[in-house]
# Entry
Amino acid sequence: MTYQETPPYQPQGKAQAIAIMTLISGILNVLLGIGLTGGFVLGTWGLGLLCAPVTILPSVLGIFEIIGAAKLMGNPPRKFNVQTIAILEIALIITGSFISLIIGILNLVFYNEPATKHYIDSLPS
# Structure
């Protein structure tokens, strides 16, 4: 029995687009979360600290988006739950993040194509 090296994963165009859009959304959500939290806390002289758990949500999602995008863009690429992240991006509209809404919808549309879904789901975790 001879050792045969497995070929490297070939990144598919739409999977790469998902990774790049998720990374951009992650960076913007971290900045949005920091801005919202800072604005509420400083704008209300500290009383907005009670609202901080709600305003921190974009930052938390942004961190998960950055981690997921880094996994998919890595060498070798790893899978992450694109569908869950995309749904959370859409739900982030409650904080006024329209870019995250658009990216979440595009990620769901791209991910639901059979070739892209098969490629991402076949990656190791």
